Amino acid sequence: MSYQHRYTDGTRIHFPVGKVVCVGRNYAEHAKELNNPVPTEPLLFIKPGSCVVCPEGGFSIPTDRGVVHYEAEIGVLIGKPLSRKPDNEEVLDAISGYAAALDLTLRDVQSKLKEKGLPWELAKSFDGACVLTAFIHSDEVGDLTDMGIRLSINGEVRQDGNSRDMLNPIIPLIQHIAGNFSLQPGDVVLTGTPVGVGPLNIGDTLALSLVGHTETQMKVLARS
Ligand code: ZN
């Protein structure tokens, strides 16, 4: 079934599924766990809309290209065009919703690409590489600098982050992105993953939550 953005009450969001703009190493503790330097400006990369899936109980991962890592992240749905370094108010006004997301990564493939200084698409843009749960409406979040993202696997908490620990908080991050290229309605910004990334195994049961708002259960399936 093809993916479409939707709110938690099941309402479909009539934006096209655009690009997914991601930021690497936006939490210092996560940069350290992969032995990466903490960047001085946001490290951006893009996943195409074609790799977005909604979990609906499960999602599948490739089994023939090495380890697939989970990265739980806060996702931001853009609802109005943003470009040329918008101010705070414009950014806030352009946000339509928030969701918990998984930025799935072929970690072995990415390590090889990094060694050679090559771009990351082969590791980050495979079909199904962005799992997006349903969005809550933007007005349900009072403080963007106190949003929790949590992932449990088979009942054990693996990632438990908060937006207060972001090196580039949500609003300045989106300003930076839009200062470099346009964001359009239907685009999603993934705001980086906290410490605790690791491998997924077929059959794992995940509980992914935007703390205090949503919790989505999903099973890891083999790509048929
Ligand atoms: Zn990520």
Number of helices: 5
So, CATH architecture? Alpha-Beta Complex
The CATH topology name reads Fumarylacetoacetate hydrolase, domain 2
* Average of the residue pLDDT scores: 95
Q: Which percent range describes the beta-strand content?
A: 25-35%
What's the end-to-end separation, in Å? 15 Å
CATH superfamily: Fumarylacetoacetase-like, C-terminal domain
Topology as H/E string?
EHEEEEEHEEHHEEEEHEEEE
Overall SS class:
alpha+beta
Low-confidence spans: none
Overall geometric form: globular
Number of domains: 1
Work out the radius of gyration: 16 Å
How many β strands by DSSP? 16
How much helical structure, as a percent, in the residues? 10-25%
What ligand species are in this complex? zinc ion
Largest sheet, in brief, is: 8 strands, mixed
